[in-house]
Each structure stands twice: as C-alpha cells, then as structure tokens.
TrEMBL record:
GO CC terms in record: cytoplasm
Pfam families named among the record's database cross-references: Phosphorylase
Recorded family membership: Belongs to the glycogen phosphorylase family.
Record field: catalytic activity: [(1->4)-alpha-D-glucosyl](n) + phosphate = [(1->4)-alpha-D-glucosyl](n-1) + alpha-D-glucose 1-phosphate
EC code: 2.4.1.1
Function: Phosphorylase is an important allosteric enzyme in carbohydrate metabolism. Enzymes from different sources differ in their regulatory mechanisms and in their natural substrates. However, all known phosphorylases share catalytic and structural properties. Allosteric enzyme that catalyzes the rate-limiting step in glycogen catabolism, the phosphorolytic cleavage of glycogen to produce glucose-1-phosphate, and plays a central role in maintaining cellular and organismal glucose homeostasis.
Protein name: Alpha-1,4 glucan phosphorylase
Keyword Transferase: yes
Positions of post-translational N6-(pyridoxal phosphate)lysine modification: K672
Region (Disordered): 1-24
The protein's required cofactors: pyridoxal 5'-phosphate
Gene this chain is encoded by: glgP
Broadest EC class assigned to this enzyme: transferase
Amino acid sequence: MAGHTKSNIAAAPGDPELASEASGRESYDRHLLLDHVVRPEDASQRERFEAVARTLRDFLTQRWLLTQQTHDRENPKRVYYLSMEFLIGRTLINNIINLGVEPYVRKELRTDPRQDWSEVVETEPDAGLGNGGLGRLAACFIESLATLQIPAMGYGLRYEYGIFRQAIENGYQIEQPDHWLAQPDPWEVCQPRQTVQVPVACRFELHDGVLRAVPGYATHLLGVPYDRPVVGYGGQTINTLRLWGASSPDHFDFGEFSSGDFVGAIVDRILAETVTRVLYPDDSTRAGQALRFVQEYFLVCCSLADIVARFRRTNDDWGLLSEKVAIQLNDTHPAMAVGELMRLLLDEAKLGWDEAWELTVETLAYTNHTLLPEALEKWPVRFFELVCPRLLEIVYEINRRFVADVQQRYPDDHPRASRMSVIEDSGERQIRMANLAIVGSHSTNGVAQIHSDLLRTRVVADFAQMFPERFNNKTNGVTPRRWLLAANRDWAGLITESIGDAWITDLSELRQLLPLADDQTFRSRFRQTKQSAKERFADWLRTTTGQVVDPETIFDSQIKRIHEYKRQLLNILHVIVLYNRLRSDPSISIPPRTFFFAGKAAPAYRLAKLIIKLINNVGRVIDEDPVSRGRIKVVFVPNYNVSLAERLIPATDVSEQISTAGYEASGTGNMKFMMNGALTIGTRDGATIEMAEEAGEENFFLFGLNAEQVANSRQWYSPHWHYENEPETRDALDLIFNDHFSRDEPGIFTPIRESLLDHGDFFMHLADLSSYAEAQQQLGELYADPDAWTRKAIINVAGSGKFSSDRTIAEYAAEIWNAVPCPID
C-alpha cells in the first residue's frame, strides 16, 4: 500500500505506482505486531484500524515532509487559518480517496479474512474538534487549500473531549462525555520541540472545590503542538493542521507530594490541561465564560508565536510580514490576534506603533459568520486584566487612536464614536471582539451575498461606511471530495460515467448534467442511486438505533444545530398540521413521509432542548396513532456528526432550509443536499438565495417572508392574529398546549407557548407556517410524479457547481490573501 520513493508519491490518483502491495502488507503486519504486540490473527478491530491508518501515514509522510521543505525553500506567501473548530469527521476514508489508493487498500484487506472494509472505516471515531457549520467549513477549507496547492496551515485546539455525545432519554437530550481521544489517534504527530510558552498574569487555585484566579502571580501555560496531515486531492500537496494541547511547566513538587498534599502537587497540571479539555464549556456561568476566554487567548498566543517563528526562519525583514503571511480569523473567536500580533511587533520586534499597526492590518483578515447581535462576542475587561493585561493596554491604545479618528471624520455625529468603540462602557466594561477584528484587519467578509449585504447595512453599518473598501463577500462552499465522491459513491460513479471525472476538482463541470435531466434512462438510474442510498441508511439506522423507517417514503431532513432561528419548531408544527389533517379526515391523500431531525442543543439552551423533547414526543404519539402510523413518521437521530451526515444526506429527498429570513449567514448543509440530488424547501435566506439563482427558483420550494419583510414587520407583527385567524395554526398549537403530546408530563411545553404567543414569536414561526404548509403541499404533489421530481433534482445537481469550497478558497486567495499555488515537485 505504501511506496516510499519520490516518484511513487508524486503519482496521480489511481496510478499503480502509488501503492506497492508487498510493502503495504508488510507495513500493515508490522504495525499490528510492533505497535500492539499482537499477532495479526489475534488483533482486535480497533488494532486493525490503527494498523491501516499508520500504514497510510507511513506512505504519505515523505510527501508531507516534501511539502514543508518546498514551502521553506520557495518562501511563498503562506495562509494561516485560525479557528476554534475543525469538524473534520473521520480521516481514514478521506485520505485514502485523496491519495488515490482505495483499490489497493480494499484488495489488501480482502486478503485478511478477519478484516472488513466497512468495519475498518466505522472503527474510527469522529474527531471531537467542532460542533456545527463553522467547524465543518474550516475542515472543507483546509482540504481545498491543499487541493489547490496553496501553502497553508490550520490552527486549532486539541480538545480531549468533543462538545458532548448526545443521547435521548424519554425524549430529552442527555449530554454525555465524548472522549474521542480515549485511544491513540494514529493521524496526529506530537511535536514537543516546538512547544510554545503562553504568559498568564495570574495563577489559578482551588479553594473549597472552587477555582479562583489569583492576580499578581505571573506564570505560563505550555502549548504543545499536535500535527495532522491535510491531504489535497491527488496527493500532490499535504498541508498541516496544527492543534494545540495545553500543559503546565514540569515543576512537580516532590516534597509537597511526600508530605501528603497530593492534590496541591498536581493541581497546576490538572488546571492547565483543563484549557483544552472540552470544546465549548457551558458559558451560562462565569467560570465557563472565563475558560472559553482562556481557550481563545491560548489559541491566539500559540498560533501567532508559531506563525512569527516560521516567518523569521526565511525572512529577516519584518517589513515583509504582510507580503509573506496571511492570517484569516474564522469568526471573532481568534480576534485577540489583533492585540497579540501588535504585542509581538512592538515588544519583540521593537517596531514603532505606526509600522506595527500597518503590518497588523495588512496581515489579518476577518470572516463574520453571524447576523445575531448576541453572537458577536464581548469579553469583560476584567478577564483581560487577570489573564493578559499587556493585551489590554494595547487594545486600549488601539481604541484611543481609532475613536479619535472616528471623531475627526464625523465631528457632528457624537453617538457614532460610542457605537464604533472597541470598548463598551455601558454596564460592565467589555471588549467588543467584532469591532476589534474589523478595526484591526484589512478585510471583513460575509459568507453569502445576502449575509454580506445585511452585515454592511445593518449589523456593522458604521464600519462599512468608514471602511467600504474592507468589506466583501465570499459565499461559502463545501468540498465535493468528502460530500459527493466519498459520501455518495453510486451517484458520484454515475456522474463520472456520464460526464467524466473533471468535476472532482472543478465542480462547475456538473453543468454538463443539464441535458441529461431530460434523458429517461439517466433519470431512472438517478432514482436507483437515491433508492439505494435510502435503503442503506434505513439499514444503518435500524442496526445502530433500533429505529425502523420505510425507504419507500419521502425522506425529509432537517439536520443542523438546534436553535430557534433555524426553526426546527416550524418544521414540527407543520408535522402536527399534517397529523391533524389525518385525524380530521383519514381518507385524504398525503404522500407517505419520514421527517428526520438531527442536531445538538447547547446544554444551557433550555428552549432548544425543549424543542428536541417536543419532536420526540410528537414522533411517539404519531407512531402510536393508527390513523397516522405508516403515513407520516418523525425520527430524531441522536448524536449528529459528520459521519451521520455522510449517510443521511445522500439518502434525502427534501432538504429543509427554513431559517427566519435574515438570520442564517450562509448554510453549507444546503449545498451538500443540493449536489446529492435533494430538493430544497426554504426561505430566501443565506446561500439558499444563490442556490435558487443557479438552479432556477422554479426548481426550489421557496416560501415565507423575506429578510426585508421580517425587518419591516417588527413593529406590528402579532402571532395572536395567526392563532385567531388561521384554524390549522390554532389547532396545531392547541394540540401541544392541551398536552396531547405530553399526557404523562402535563404543562412541560408551556415555555414554547410563552415564546410563540406571550413573548412575540421573535423568529416568526407563525407568520410563515401557512406559507410553509402550502409549499409542502406542492412538494408532495410533485413527488407523485417521479419523472418531474427527478428532472428537478438533476437540474439542482447541475446548478450546484458554484458551491465548491475550491471556488470559495480561490476567491479568498485572489481577493483577500494575494496567495498563489506552490506546486510540489
């Protein structure tokens, strides 16, 4: 499986030179024997997976090193992508496909009667490094950077536990530890020689079981780097994802331990390692907020130190920094990079303020991912005072100069300076991290055209007026290697058979499918691939969860983080409307439909968790009622992750993209569904607008208020009007509030009633429910005509070419980073 010559590694995907069967088998057996001290015939499934993964890593290591050596030698401009999340999923299958060695891996595993290819893939856990779209986008981006041969590194944190493993008990979400690193990860390589010291201006102590910060005791954390290969398609470039693990200086007090103070002797190490223990600590408490703050500071300090060290290895002139380095901040989480880069340039490089500031602004760029004001991070000044007072000094000076500039430019607009200030003085003094990111970078981009427009005109309009040249749009994309080539083999194979394989690296080639939408044979074969995917998913679901679904029904999926603005509640309200129709007249014609929900709610987000409970309760009642059983079914699939999405997306007929218009930044699940042949029912929000433009609105099921209508109706919108004047809306709500779905727990859904009727229905579920139900009715009618449905599905796939992360990254490289490919010889 692994050839170890330069010519072997440089071969194209599928080239026989890529793999030496003898050496691959020898490497596999050697890893089983030497890594685990076990005979191959006695090895466990996990041990066999690790042997395959390490054999593959042996194979790619030479190319990985050659990539780094070439970048050092050529000294191109390098891109550094800072993100608190990288939702990379499983690595084995992605690396096998991108290296082009799958036929050889399959062949070799077939020679082992105890080895099953599918079981090998299933043994690998999803890496617990992300939660939702932000992290999955980062994973797609770093894969596209490698595929496009752009010199780049990703920087994140090596969380020992993911956000949490979701279980469902009595309909409720239960959070369990997601210890994805319980066993060694064969892909990561620890680099202790490149450990970074992170200064901290306080120490943390345990008092009566409570963690407290003690100021005035300067100490430091250690950032230990763990590197993972990022394989570009074709295996030409292998970039690096560097994840930082937190530790403490090794000063174990043997005397303290010997005297009986066992906890005191090891508390520093335990506290230090807590920094990278868990992704997204519960921020409903002050302690959780403080830990999150330290995580962001730790990421920025480690990454900036490493970036500057790499720059200095090949550049003596600090003035070349922005010509050789591009740093992209993925949302506000790494926004402290503005202050930290200034600190490095001022305190270590000894540059003057003006030169340091110019270099900082030219080097940094910021991606905004939200239109929700509450999601624009603010950190208490007190956190900065305790942890990093030097950064606070620098931020104060940045703000003093910036506010003075605002006042000079707008002398008659006194409130403007207060709105734009990096420091918020009302109530507890806080640092506005989005303001800091915009002020301290040369580019601020949104991630869909409507998002970028709303960002400029509503969310940060003052900044867009002052710095119009800094604002731009970069519509998101997803990697077709993961989300079509790997996830949907049958459909990918049919595409390649029909138009060739150039689409794998140029998704715009899918336009060639348009004429085939009118080809009866091609439509029939498309339906076969979809049906096969549905049957595979139904088998997997039954095996893993015990839930039984009928693959002959419409598969309607809403899979994303549970949040009010994403409106899973609107979806389940419509399900109740359908259920009521059947109860009123069992003879009516409703195409049999299975509604899939999947996603996690933040542990402290009580209403979101209650929506999960409602979904599960509605599903149970519908299953128990003879009038609805077999005609509509609701399934909540627990513990949503990348691997689950790779199974369900190819099997889905209907993609639910139903956020309140003006609140979804982009969405990327919508793109994955589109290229896999699902039809979209959605609002005019995020990237769905651009998707409909590419495929034609007549091939989408769009409904509801648009963003302008949502904004303009705030003053007069009354959910009570819809309750009083729309019988189906009233009947659906009454069924919930009269405990039809909660007979054993009366009153548990009262907070949902309060949100919808008493508190104004901020996300306008009831305003869109009738329009949504009408669109669903049209959808069901179309599905009854298989040829018409399939034609629209193929047109959607043909129109999905714009939504490749390769296109997005090419735009970032040309328009923000000024970075070009650096081919590996």
